[in-house]
Design brief:
By secondary structure, the protein is of the alpha/beta class.
Length: 674
């Protein structure tokens, strides 16, 4: 690293040999020496998405420069050249399989500052022409034994009686690190007789499409799982790689697969890892084995496979109704299609279907599973041809993601008793379903952007609903009164519902933490809070037609942030708002008719400092003559008339040991007066 020249180094080799591990180790060791650094993993997978090239450039810019301007590839590359052309950088492009990917991210003739290093990992040597190439070597027998033993004897220490059979075992891995880890984890805490049995199975296993050096080992590890663990493994391989552990666990709990134990076993067997962010990760080769296992269920007829994810196969079974009851999960990315046809009878035979996802491009972080990006103004969605006679007898369905669903409602015969998750954003739905439905397992509903939605369903049975997103449902006129009884609801989004006029007359949702009603421009009243709600922290009412808040606002004892920006009908605030001990953020910008503040507003002890706001934001405001009049009233008896000016007012706050953060026409953020 003492050299000042710019170098690109390729790490080339077969899958499972440890290319990414080596690249990560080098990056972790030398990256502290660089001001600009980025480890860009899963490059191949990232480019597969629609607009994947643009998204990967955005990701690179975000990580290495902390900026987001990848709206065009040319624009992104220009920023890289301009900002980094003479900088010393370290960049890893992990798992590249196409020259276009390299050129898109660093240009055809990359040039960076002296001492810069770019590392590229790939299975294709041709992509590294003209670069330095490092080829990892297969482990020697002694090195292989060392790595194998780390996994095979985690529970019990190695004993002499295992030496001979350990040497036999590592022969099956042919020096591949991934195979050694998986095989060692498979044999951990087993007797010699059990080792003999597993090694014999590996010897007799059919060769998969992978090379026989590793395919048989991975297959044997899968074969050693119980049926629940096998289902979890195949679901992750086909659907849930990079998805959040919490969501996948909840899904498999609802399926009765005992995921807490199952995921633990998969991690112990080195088949799955969990990232520091809680995402499920799986090596590409292990994922390929999982998909190959599903493919072999029926090589000629995809409708007889348990899981479907490829465009060709999914489109065929949906349009031609060639599916059987074997299918348990379907996933289709609509962003790569101009149109899709769904046969009326397509779902009739899918009596075991647990997962249905017809989605637009979804977030990489995956915690909000399947959630679509916000559509741009120029976005052209996939045209979906679905008859109103669609039959939907999917009573085993747990997850329903169908973006842009084209019908007015779900079929009347659909019984959602096992549903835990519904995401039908940008749909044409007017009403999700009629009458009361069994919704005891439902935890999430997202109908955002469904501009034809008129009213919400009856939530009486949705006793475990945690998140409800109805943002930008511009035709929504009413919310069913049963929403007020949702004791488990944590987040409620109704922002942008510009025709919503009424909410239930009173609410008491003890688990509610976040409410957004911003942009509900016809909403004139906020409900009474019938009982104390301790955990509601954020209430956003920007742009509503609310004239005043109810006096029961003091029941929001945990409220920290209240935003009423652009509430031009707001006339006054209730006196007891001053009793909210946790309130530290109040936004009254553009409340042009606000003519009265509470009589004891000058007490200010309810406005406490919160470190998450930058210190310089506090105490930076000036007061117009109009606002001074308000403060004279609010502070009557506290300060002498001569002190009613900006400097004296802030001095008063400082002496109280409190800090104030109020935005508004009367409190404009300006230069500091400290």
């Amino acid at each position: 690293m003492g050299m000042d020249d710019f170098r690109i180094v390729g790490i080339w080799g077969m899958g499972g040999i440890g290319k990414s591990t080596i690249a990560r180790a080098v990056y972790d060791k030398i990256s502290p020496q660089f001001e600009h650094k980025c480890f860009l993993d899963n490059v191949k997978e990232g480019f597969l998405a629609k607009n994947g090239a643009v998204q990967m450039v955005e990701e690179l810019l975000s990580r290495i420069l902390k900026v987001k301007d990848g709206r065009t590839l040319v624009g992104g590359l220009n920023i890289i050249r301009e900002r980094l052309g003479k900088k010393k950088i370290i960049l890893v492009l992990d798992d590249v399989d196409n020259l276009d990917q390299i050129e898109t991210l660093i240009g055809k003739k990359p040039s960076f500052g002296g001492g810069s290093r770019i590392i590229i990992t790939t299975r294709d040597k041709k992509l590294l022409a003209g670069f330095l190439i490092y080829k990892p070597k297969l482990f020697t027998t002694e090195k292989a034994l060392e790595l194998f033993s780390q996994y095979a004897f985690r529970t019990n220490k190695n004993s002499v009686c295992y030496n001979a059979i350990s040497r036999r075992a590592v022969e099956y891995a042919h020096g591949l690190p991934l195979a050694l880890k998986v095989l060692g984890a498979l044999l951990d805490n087993r007797t010699i007789q059990e080792w003999e049995y597993e090694l014999e199975k590996i010897k007799k296993n059919p060769i998969t499409f992978l090379d026989n050096n590793i395919g048989r080992v991975l297959w044997a590890s899968y074969d050693g799982l119980d049926e629940y663990q096998k289902n979890i493994f195949l679901d992750i391989a086909c659907f849930f790689k990079t998805k959040h552990k919490d969501f996948v666990t909840k899904f498999h709990e609802s399926c009765g697969f005992f995921p807490h134990n199952g995921l633990r076993v998969l991690v112990e067997r080195s088949l799955v890892t969990v990232s520091i962010c809680g995402e499920l990760e799986m090596h590409d080769l292990i994922q390929e084995v999982g998909k190959d296992i599903v493919h072999r269920e029926s090589t000629k007829d995809p409708g007889r496979c348990s899981r479907l994810w490829g465009y060709e196969n999914v489109l065929q079974v949906l349009a031609q109704n060639t599916v059987t009851e074997a299918v348990e999960g379907i996933i289709l990315d609509l962003t790569k299609l101009k149109e899709v046809y769904v046969n009326d009878e397509a779902f009739v035979s899918m009596r075991r279907l647990r997962l249905l996802q017809l989605s637009e491009n979804y977030h990489k972080d995956g915690y909000v599973y399947g959630s679509a990006w916000m559509r741009g103004a120029d976005y052209e969605p996939c045209v979906q041809y679905v008859s109103k006679n669609l039959k939907f007898l999917l009573n085993e369905l747990r997850v329903l993601v169908w973006h842009g669903y084209p019908l007015k409602s779900l079929p009347i015969d659909f019984l959602p008793k096992n549903l835990i998750y519904v995401d039908m954003c940008y749909s044409h739905i007017e009403q999700l379903w009629e009458e009361t439905k069994p919704l005891q397992n439902l935890t999430y509903i997202n109908l955002s952007g469904s501009k034809y939605l008129i009213k919400t369903p009856d939530f009486t049975e949705a006793t475990n609903l945690e998140k409800l997103n109805l943002a930008d449902c511009t035709s929504l006129l009413e919310v069913h009164p049963s929403i007020s009884a949702l004791k488990s609801l944590v987040e409620l989004y109704l922002d942008g519902c510009s025709n919503l006029k009424n909410l239930p007359s009173s609410i008491h949702m003890k688990s509610l933490e976040y409410v957004c009603l911003s942009g509900c421009s016809k909403l004139t009243e906020f409900p009474e809070i019938s009982e104390v709600m301790k955990v509601l922290r954020v209430l956003r009412l920007d742009g509503t037609a609310i004239k005043e808040l109810p006096s029961s606002i003091n029941n929001l004892t945990g409220l920290e942030e209240l935003s009423m920006r652009n509430c031009r009908s707001l006339v006054c605030l209730p006196d007891n708002i001053c009793n909210l001990a946790c309130l530290h953020y109040l936004n009254l910008t553009e409340c042009s008719n606000l003519s009265k503040l509470p009589e004891n507003f000058g007490n200010l002890t309810f406005l406490g400092r919160k470190e998450k706001y930058a210190k310089q934001e506090f105490g930076k405001f000036t007061c117009s003559n109009e606002s001074l009049g308000l403060f004279r009233t609010a502070l009557s008896g506290r300060l002498q008339e001569t002190e009613i000016n900006t400097r004296a007012f802030i001095k008063y706050i400082r002496n109280k040991g409190r800090e104030l953060h109020i935005f508004g026409d009367s409190f404009n953020t300006t230069a500091s007066v400290w």
